[in-house]
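@here heads up, posting the sequence + SMILES for the flavin-adenine dinucleotide run so it's all in one place. Ping me if the SMILES looks off, I pulled it from an old spreadsheet.
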Amino acid sequence: MSTGRRDFLKTSTAAVTAAGLGGCERGDRSVSEPRTPRRLHRELLRAIGDAVLPGAIGADGREKAIVAFEVWLQEFTPNAELVHPYGGWEVAYGPEDPSPRWAEQLDDLERLARQRSMASFGELSRDDRRTLIADAIEDAGPGFPTPAEAQHVAVALMAHYFRSTEATNQVYGVAINKLQCRVITTAGEKPPALGG
Amino acid sequence: MTTIESDICIIGSGITGILAAERLSELADADIVMVEAGSRSTPFSNRPEQRRRFIAYGENPWKDDHLDDQGGYGLMYRSMVVGGCAMHWDGACPRFSPEDFRQRSMYGVGTDWPISYDDVEPYYQDFEERIGVAGEQGPPEYDPRSRPYPLPPLPLSYNLIQLREWGANAGIPFWTQPWAKATEPYRGRAGCQRCDTCHVCPTGAKYTPDVTLDRLIDDGGLRLISGTLVRRLEVDDASTHITRAVAADRHAPDESVEFRATTFILAGGYAWSPHLLLLSSSSQFPNGLANSSGLVGKYMTGHPYMSAQIELPLELYPGIFSTSSLLSRMHARPGPLDRYVRHDLRIWNTTVERQARFRDATGVLQFGDDVMDDWRARTKQATARVRGYIDIIPDRDSTLGLDASARNQWGDPLPRIEFRDAPESVALRDHTHETMRTIFEHMARAGNGRVLSTFRSTTMEHPGGGCRMGEDPETSVTDSFGRTHDHDNLFVIGAPTLVSGGCANGTPTFCALSLRSAEEIARAFPSR
Ligand SMILES: Cc1cc2nc3c(=O)[nH]c(=O)nc-3n(C[C@H](O)[C@H](O)[C@H](O)COP(=O)(O)OP(=O)(O)OC[C@H]3O[C@@H](n4cnc5c(N)ncnc54)[C@H](O)[C@@H]3O)c2cc1C
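bot reply: prediction finished. Complex structure tokens:
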């Protein structure tokens, strides 16, 4: 048995009994390759977030969702090898870095806002912002693409949030906590109410 | 040329090769070498991080798990890696049914295997104990076994409890799928924490063959030579004995490595095993090795499936434990039949129709709270996926051949696979689909639900065949132990020896057969 597995067994069983959560979120992250900074215009992204993310999660919830999207983008690897689909003999690769396109779209929204309303995008009402965004979206629907495949940055931001554990919990009103490692013994119980 | 000598040379480090090696090391006092074309993939310590990236970006968590120039049309999987495909399998572990081994005598179709379920049963049990299968005894008439599973079953999720009741209301008994996932610490593995990414298990609860391989290497049970592709097997001029396997070092492509051994075991899986036999043609064996019957690369098998998404008036919570599922083998053991239709059934809770969408049903864009409201309204119903693997009879011309138009860096032609059903299965295809559609409709009605959609697969899951076993050297490539009829020191183990593909995930059967082969192979060596 490799040392890693042996150590994991020791630590994880202790963690499961103590906290009901495993140590599976830990791990060796040192092998990740250094990435070049990849940032979108901070204020414009937040102006979009206010328009397209749910009001029900509040300003804090939206800020959290936007920061999570920024981190996601920062750690994105262009043209990465994707998981091999079952039954496929061809190896698939993910998209190129979407951030140059998305950055341009933010600039376009800002320019359009100034052209049409003589105001910056962030100063427009939520409805006016939505109108400008809706005009710019070319993504087909109805379902969300993966964030990396989204043509428009607004769709990417929504896709990132609406696919998240938080959004699923919000919509069902209970703590399903999908993709979170936890004990199997509680699997048969109805998930507890949020905040309960 | 480097020469590596051993008593037993195993080609391929997949789950079948590794479990056979483990059994051999217990029984035989023999020096074992295992050759693997691929390299080591993501180490255990890095799997949590690769899991994170798999969730966030859909990236392949198994780094360097395939060889760029070893592909081929019709392959089911690309992995060539230490541990083989089961490094990232899901770990579903149903057995075949007694009927799978007796199609001809029970139903007048296909070909009987030279062995029965009873012959294989002890090896299924051995397999389940070695890898730690968690399971529940199903109704004995549908789930015959001699002993309990080594581990208690995965608990049913809140969703599956309700879906099992739905199945029972439809008159179909469902029980928990057996899984190669430790429900409690087992032989050095941690217990399952329902992380729901079994493709890359961050806890090590799901069995992966590297666990056994590392233990064997640590204990001196075998030597692993990885990154080394066997390109041909060669035969002694004066006899039909295999004398050596000639390989290329992938890190030094001009370097040849030869493996000399008393016994050769081909454990390259359903594609690469028949492929290597065909590649090893010579003036003495112009059709390749072990091929006096002309059946190497023939009777390729597997199973297609049909599935339905069924909407039910239930409040379920997708994500509690999405990877677990329910199994029924009722239709795999149907008793006497007028027309041959056999399949299993599985149920999952899915998110189909229960996901957020940015255009509503009329195609209008929606944002923010409107997305939530539209989504929430659709969570008041649930979707169950029901799927059946269908037993089909493989045609003789269901073929793996050499594709002269696609070659690897050494110029060797790559495999090309074209599956084909036998005429008796083709004739039954529409009837089979109609029968299954009727079951799906019946289940939907029993739950006051409706069928949203159905799907028929075109691929062959859990492929096997290409070196089918049998008693007659004219109609088979190996005997029931995988010993090739033409070369008494060459064994083909696992998937390629299957006569037919059954209607259950194949790996438990591949491995049970390999363990049975290992016992036979060990007889030629002093015992431990
Ligand atoms: C995503 C996924 C999910 C799956 N889930 C399930 C499941 O839930 N249940 C189930 O029963 N099955 C499942 N399977 C199938 C299962 O993984 C395979 O049936 C099983 O791993 C096959 O094992 P094997 O030993 O026959 O072959 P392999 O795993 O293919 O191993 C053969 C090894 O031999 C090496 N090799 C081949 N030729 C040569 C050569 N000439 N020289 C050197 N090395 C060579 C290869 O590189 C390879 O590593 C799944 C597969 C995939 C891809």
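MO: Chain A touches chain B through 81 residues (CB under 8 Å).
MO: One more: Residues 164-196 of chain A form one domain.
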